[in-house]
Amino acid sequence: MQLPEESVLLRIFIGEDDRADGQPLYEAIVVKAREMHMAGATVLRGPLGFGRSSRLHTAKILRLSQDLPIVVEIVDAPDKINAFIPALLGMTPSCLITTEKVRVIRYGEGEETR
């Protein structure tokens, strides 16, 4: 699979406790991205963060409910990202979704750098 040099980074900011059909939302997003043949997806777990509610989410030991911040990142061609967004919106009732243009330097093993 080739990625165009001018691609798009899709970021989805959710909570660790968010669910979709009984499974963690981040897993549902990655599985859907794979089903839609996206170039790849990465899940990042943050030790500290807050969102729209301004409620602090932390990994400190004394907290009973952590609900740590999760970021799912997907890089792909603009048309593939745009096709994925409606499916994503159907899974995420509350979250932050952003996109930005990125320049792909290398995707895969042994390919020439651009």
TrEMBL record:
Q: Which family does it belong to?
A: Belongs to the UPF0166 family.
Name used for this protein in its record: DUF190 domain-containing protein
Signal peptide (UniProt feature, chain positions)? none
Instruction: Tell me which InterPro entries the record gives.
Output: N-reg_PII-like_a/b, N-reg_PII/ATP_PRibTrfase_C, UPF0166
Q: Which Gene3D superfamilies match?
A: 3.30.70.120
